[in-house]
Amino acid sequence: MGLQMNGRQGRRQFLRKGGGAISALGLAPALAGAQPATISAPAVSGAGWEVTNINNNGADMYVKVVTAMTLNVIDVDIAFVITSTPSTAGGVVLYCTGAVSRGAAPTFSGGSAEYFYPATDSNFGSVQIYNPNSLTVSYSADFTQPTLFAVDLKTWVPTDGTASATFRHLTTEPSLSLNAGDYLVFHMNHAGVPGDAEMQIVLAYS
Fold this sequence. Notes:
Blueprint (H helix, E strand, L loop, with lengths): L1 H23 L18 E12 L3 E7 L4 E14 L7 E12 L45 E11 L8 E7 L3 E3 L4 E10 L2 E11 L1
Antiparallel strand pairs: 1-9, 2-8, 3-6, 3-7, 3-9, 4-5, 4-8
């Protein structure tokens, strides 16, 4: 419950202070002495989703963009909490992303994680790994776009469950043009001690 209250308070603060973030994007009224701004105020919209007992699996939520717009601000709360104490201590990893599928509904990787991979960004070459100490290194993929955010929540869960819940609040300002027919795609997948995962999303757009 504490995590949920923290998230709601964060969203309320975002909505109250959204004008500051929007001003930083050049969408606020013009400064005194300048010509008045002629664009309308951005709209704010939000949705959320929860995966109950996410246990070494993944899921996705996506929504079609019906009207062309500029996505100015995205504000996200992500939280994970165990649903019962484990018989042995262990870790939790919750990997969460937001991205855009251009011009078509998304397709997913299959398998338990059900990743969504946006298109490879042609402005960058392939990722290279320098690993002189023979460490175990892995990476998700080459750079992709349009990517809105990527969050990796990790926590340790003792057998009594103390202090094992984890959450993250983030705000980004992508100023990203979206076309009618694009899709916003949100993803969560998990490994480790089972529990519930939730993502709440607030968008400011014009």
